[in-house]
């Protein structure tokens, strides 16, 4: 598995955990750490997580041998 894919997967996992916190406890961890949803750093992180989600869609369409 290449480095870019590993980074993307970590960001997708962070995003999934954040959405779980929002769903269960109405707590946005990324916003809490970086000063709110509207701050530029939070928006960058949300954008990176979204792009990572799009990138990891490729996992559905590639064989396991091709990823290694």
UniProtKB/TrEMBL annotation:
The keyword Transmembrane helix applies. It comes from the Bacteria. The chain crosses the membrane at residues 7-34, 40-62. InterPro entries: DUF378. Pfam families: DUF378. Keywords: Membrane, Transmembrane, Transmembrane helix. PANTHER family: MEMBRANE PROTEIN, MEMBRANE PROTEIN-RELATED. This is DUF378 domain-containing protein. It comes from Aneurinibacillus thermoaerophilus.
């Amino acid at each position: 598995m290449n480095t870019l894919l590993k980074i993307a997967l970590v960001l997708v996992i962070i995003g999934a955990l954040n959405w779980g916190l929002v769903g269960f406890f109405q707590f946005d961890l990324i916003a809490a750490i970086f000063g709110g949803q509207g701050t530029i750093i939070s928006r960058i992180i949300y954008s990176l997580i979204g792009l990572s989600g799009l990138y990891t869609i490729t996992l559905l369409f590639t064989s396991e041998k091709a990823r290694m």
